[in-house]
Specification:
This protein is an alpha/beta fold. The protein is built from seven helices and ten strands. It has helices at 9-26, 41-52, 80-87, 109-120, 157-163, 182-186, 201-209, and strands spanning 2-6, 31-34, 62-65, 67-69, 99-100, 126-129, 151-154, 176-179, 190-195, 227-232. It binds fructose -6-phosphate (F6R).
């Protein structure tokens, strides 16, 4: 595990964007595993800027997103498909047909389809992750075992609480979601997790400076051979 400590969110975003840009430059047809949420937005903005300046080319990149809320259509403004178009895909020269987000409306066959898609790509070259306040990655919530492939999960109250800021009330936050499993994530050749802010400090401490346990799903990343934690001073303030 390598840790890059940054001054603040902006520096964290720049460093993360540099790591992703290097991947695209070295392997123009790479498969990027992407995340939603507040943590990666700054990195996406930086990537979009470099792309608009002609410094970065997404034309051959393929992407697979981590997760999607159950029941939300891709045009719902809180769906992760919508988030990705709004925050990245509409601003870079990626072929939208090469982007993939799990479907929130296709039912249980979706899990098998999504895992086959990742397998057919030959796996993920670089997986970008955020960190839940409860230590989740994707929507792999604390449990008594690690999940394997893509599956449907019941969201914990702490996750629904953390995500209610995007909805008009907590009642509108879906109770379930589809997520890549921990095995899917661990099989990525490189994993980069971004974390910022004091509200992530406890989760960072438990996940990367404590025992590996499914109670803190991100802790399994300690075993990954090429895992980079990019975190700001606040997120690292308890270690
Ligand atoms: C999003 C995802 C989640 C978030 C995590 C942190 O696709 O998989 O695991 O990365 O909940 O969210 P933010 O960045 O909003 O704090």
């Amino acid at each position: 595990m390598r840790i890059i400590k940054t001054k603040d969110y902006d520096e964290m975003s720049r460093v993360t964007a540099q790591i992703i840009a290097s991947e695209i430059t070295l392997k123009p047809n790479c498969v990027l595993g992407l995340a939603t949420g507040s943590s990666p937005v700054g990195a996406y903005q930086q990537l979009a800027k470099w792309c608009s300046e002609g410094k970065l080319d997404f034309s051959q990149v393929h992407s697979v997103n981590l997760d999607e809320y159950d029941g939300l259509t891709p045009d719902h403004d809180q769906s992760y498909a919508y988030f990705m178009r709004h925050n990245l895909f509409d601003h870079v020269n990626i072929d939208i047909n090469n982007t993939n987000v799990p479907s929130g409306i296709s039912g249980d066959n979706e899990c098998e389809r999504y895992d086959k898609l990742i397998k057919d790509f030959g796996g993920i070259d670089l997986q970008l992750l955020g960190l839940g306040v409860n230590g989740h990655i994707g929507f792999n919530e604390p449990d008594d075992h690690f999940s394997l492939g893509t599956h449907k999960v019941t969201l914990t109250e702490s996750t629904r609480e953390a995500n209610k800021r995007f909805f008009s009330s907590i009642d509108e936050v879906p109770t379930h979601a589809y997520t890549m499993g921990v095995r899917d994530i661990l099989q990525a050749r490189r994993v980069v997790l971004v974390a910022n802010g004091k509200n992530k400090a406890e989760a960072v401490k438990k996940a990367f400076f404590g025992p590996v346990t499914p109670e803190v799903p991100a802790s399994i990343l300690q075993y990954h051979q090429d895992f980079i934690l990019v975190a700001d001073e606040d997120a690292l303030s308890l270690v």
